[in-house]
Amino acid sequence: MKKGVKIAAVGLSSIFLSGLAVAQEENIKEFMKYEVLNGQYVKEEIPVDPNAYLWKTVRGKKVFLYPQISVRLNDKQANRLIPKKKLVEAMVKVAYNNDSIAVYVRWKDNTPSIQTVYDTNKFADGVSIEFPNSFGKGITLPYVGMGDGNHPVTVYLQKVVEGRDYQKVFVSEGFGSLTEIKEPAQIEMKYNEKTKEWTAVFKRPLKTENSNLKAGLVPVAFAIWDGSKFERDGNKSLSRWKFIKLGKYKIDEEYLKYVSWGYPADKIGDPAKGKKIALQNGCAACHRFDDQLTAPQGMAPDLSDIGGIANPVYLKESVVNPNDVVIRNLNPNRHYNKHAKPDKFKAYPNNDMYQWYIEVNGKKQSKMPPFSHLSEQDLKDLIAYLSTLRNWKNFK
Ligand code: HEC
């Protein structure tokens, strides 16, 4: 891996002035260290069985998943547990050959939970991985919570449901816009009573109708559901975008430069200044974060743990160009306008204040104004600050 970094850095230094290249090297090193999962090339068929010998020989890396708080269910019982949640630590391994790629995910869960047919208050443990349908040079990162209108993703989902093998593949453009598809994917998930761990292996062809993963750096993200905490749908834990390195393919230097922007996020700027910038620019009028909890819940995504689930470059784009990724309203029907006239079924219309976007000529436009006037340094301070936000325990 060291060699790969060096080659990439040398390539970049020829593009940039030497002073800049030093800074580049630093952020690429950090990015490689924390965000890149090394895919191991193998010649043989890759087993889907999590207990197969091959998986003992592949080196893994830890991935952290944060409780997703922007999505709230109409379920007090589930919401109440959010501040008590812990980070989910998953061990991730990747193997690939000339045709297929397989991703192994292992995590601790002391309370294996299986959804039964009869008990509607019992929810399934589950896991999913997603890949953007397109990525690479010139293509921005999707919303990590299952894509958005400009960035469809393919999601592979496995849940533990009694009596059937519940696995699905979707193309998703965000909440409420899932299309189930048929892909030659295989998934297997097993529980180990001794170690109290779940392990799942996802295997798919490198190239499918929807996406081609034959690339040096492949974005991937993870979600895990803990059924015993009533988790289901958007109530889950979520990783940020990680990147699988496939050594057989060349890393596009422009893409590497793009995705490694802002690493390490706590060093690109001053978080204390960044907080001031957030307050001066009125972010707290719509968002809740840190000790800023006055915005009505649901008016905009809750940013209390945004530093855990968002990559620095994604944060930058969210602030400068909110229309590139427009997050679909997570729970639009939770808020009603009780001042308006109810319809014939005595139901009030939705309260527009909680709608996250408007449609202009059929295109979604974010209600968030672009903050493209911020200076480069103010922007870096702001991103440094947003990256420190990993305090879902603040959730109220
Ligand atoms: C007028 C209300 C409003 C203001 C002011 C506002 N935002 Fe937003 N923001 C939104 C809405 C609505 C969304 C979700 C729609 C979208 O994707 O743009 C959003 C999305 C975001 C996201 C993406 C969140 C995610 O989960 O991916 C970030 C990050 C963000 N805003 C940061 C900021 C920052 C930083 C400021 C201040 C500089 C700010 N916002 C000011 C309304 C606002």
From TrEMBL:
SUPFAM superfamilies: Cytochrome c. CDD domains: DOMON_EBDH. Coiled coil: none annotated. Pfam families: Cytochrom_C (PF00034). It comes from the Bacteria. GO terms for molecular function: electron transfer activity; heme binding; metal ion binding. Residues 269-390 form the Cytochrome c domain. InterPro entries: Cyt_c-like_dom (IPR009056), Cyt_c-like_dom_sf (IPR036909), DMSO_Rdtase_II_haem_b-bd_su (IPR017838). Keywords: Heme, Iron, Metal-binding, Signal. GO terms for cellular component: periplasmic space. The keyword Heme applies. PROSITE patterns: CYTC. Residues 1-23 form the signal peptide. This is Complex iron-sulfur molybdoenzyme family reductase subunit gamma.
